Amino acid sequence: MKLTTKGRYAVMAMADLASNMNSGPISLREISLRQNISVAYLEQIFIKLKKRKLVKSSRGASGGYLLEKPASEIKISNIIFAVDEEVRMLNCKKNSKKGCNNKSTKCITHNLWDELDQHIHQFFEKVKLQDLVRGEIN
């Protein structure tokens, strides 16, 4: 499965933000300490999350980040795609003229991995950030 640390860390950071939202704006340093993710890496992630309007920032001594909308409205897929992640089991492009093996045909297991991709995507579409924070993932 192709999901890099960027996607995983983005979900972790957003879950941390959602878990601590009653404390007001959360600094990247706080998230960094709690989740063991470097501040520099979080800065890169949060630029993308802010661009996709998943978080908003506030400046000042007590500044930091807040969720742009309620955790109940943020799908895990929104977070993953915001940081330019693509969760795929297949190496080939779905509508490519070249098949899985750079030939004109698909590999023998193509449909199996394609079906798994669809299940993973549906799962991330179904799970909300609030579900993750509350531990309510089925």
How would you portray this structure in words?
There is one protein chain. By secondary structure, the chain is mainly alpha-helical. It has a domain at 5-89 and 129-134: Orthogonal Bundle (Arc Repressor Mutant, subunit A), CATH 1.10.10. The protein is built from six helices and two strands; from the N terminus they run H-H-H-E-E-H-H-H. A two-stranded antiparallel sheet has the order 1-2. Strand 1 and strand 2 form a beta hairpin. Helix 1 packs across helix 3. It is elongated. The model has no long low-confidence stretch (mean pLDDT 87).
Structural class: mainly alpha
How much helicity do the residues have?
40-55%
Number of strands: 2
Order of helices and strands: HHHEEHHH
> In the CATH classification, which architecture of the domain at 5-89 and 129-134 applies?
Orthogonal Bundle
Low-confidence stretches: none
General shape: elongated
Question: What is the residue-mean pLDDT, rounded to a whole number?
Answer: 87
Strand composition percent = 5-15%
Main sheet attributes: strand count, strand direction, barrel closure = 2 strands, antiparallel
Number of helices, counting only DSSP H or I runs of 4 residues or more: 6
CATH superfamily of the domain at 5-89 and 129-134: Winged helix-like DNA-binding domain superfamily/Winged helix DNA-binding domain
CATH topology of the domain at 5-89 and 129-134: Arc Repressor Mutant, subunit A
CATH class of the domain at 5-89 and 129-134: Mainly Alpha
Structural Rg? 17 Å
Distance between the termini: 20 Å
Can you list the strand order of the major beta sheet? 1-2
